[in-house]
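User: hey, got a sec? need Threonine synthase folded
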Amino acid sequence: MHYVSTRGAAGLADFRRVVLSGLADDGGLFVPQAVPQYTPEQIGSWSWLPFDELVWRVVSPYVGGAMDEAALRALLSDSYRDFDHRAITPLRQIGHNEWILELFHGPTQSSKDFAAQLQARLVAHFLPQQQGRALVIGATNGETGLAAIEAFAGCSNAQLAVLYPEQGVPPAQLAALHQANPQQVALIPVAGSFDDCQTLVSRLLRQWPLPEVTPICFNSTNWVGVLAQIVYYFHAALQLGGGTRPVAFSVPAASFAEIYAGYIAQKMGLPINQVIVSTNSNDALHHFIQRNRYSTRQSSRTSSPAMDFSLYSNLERFIWELYDHDGHAVRALMEHFEACGELSIGNQQWLRARVLFDSHAVEELQIREEVLRLFAETGAAVDPHTAVGALSGRIQRRSLGAPMVTLGQIAPSKSAGLLAELGVWPGPVAALAEPDEVRTGLQTGDLASLIRALRQATQARP
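Assistant: Yep! Here you go:
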């Protein structure tokens, strides 16, 4: 298996190079040169497989010859060791042919554990083969950073740098971030939004200033962040129809990686007949799907904070697919977007996207009403992100005959305060711990100060 860049000017890379990377050398994102494809009969034969064997079938073609089979099988099985449900991704029915795929049974109770647990083990496997040190860096508004910190805690040869918005992380997640081991994790607040944090990370990776340190991105710009999530689309479809019955998915847009993973799963042969991009009032993706107009905009704070941003890096991978792997076209589009903050694709490409994709934006009052409705009608307490997906799925579904699966990405317990306020949380709500210190964040775009902070962090490590 070889990988290329979405921007067309980098050479071929193997899986090891992709794992130990931030961006491709030309500033693009790594993508597989070809996607493995399977017949309905082949996919149907996987319906009886245990989860770790299914993971092997889905993931191993993307690894190619970079690992031997026994080592990869052991690594994949170990990636789910700390999940607290034997099904790993259990399904819960919430209506007629409506389901929630529970992706929050990992160590930090969010879907981000899938990518983080796999990535940390792959980095630990490949990094000793490379000289020098590594810095695992990325941006978070809560869940992604917590998942990365937990996963890499046992990876002694990698240090983390986590950028987060000074005012944009929920108190519980902020307190948890500040409990990280300062000897391994450098926390860097930014006086701006989560989008500003992501922009700083992208600029840093394109102008990497520490030649003695290998940069590895823990955000889903790293291909592993997509690869880990393809698996649960297969798992859900196999459970609900043996891999031959059409299935639809509603994806709360906490990242475009989950959405793009569904597209890749369909391209591999999975019978997905609809993917609904579900947003809250921060609806940049909804405007892109509905009107072919994508732009960064000021994000508002909502009860579903993991979706409170407008910059989706994995959209570049999807555009590369829509343009039939034309790296030059993608480069022109993305450079225009980076300069102007706006993007529209060709009408032919947009219509291709609409064959599979729909979208829906849910307002704040509707989120609360959906949480109450699901509890009253099913007894299920769901977090606001899941409520966004469930309501969007019910409104936008194309077929009542195809199961509608909402990705439940965050455990309800993480929204216990709101759920208790609404009267749907069964127990007491733990008091929030305050961070030990509140630091002034880097100014938006202050790349020089970020570089100084990283130099200090990497030099201070024993």
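Quick note: The longest strand covers residues 158-165. Let me know if you need anything else on Threonine synthase.
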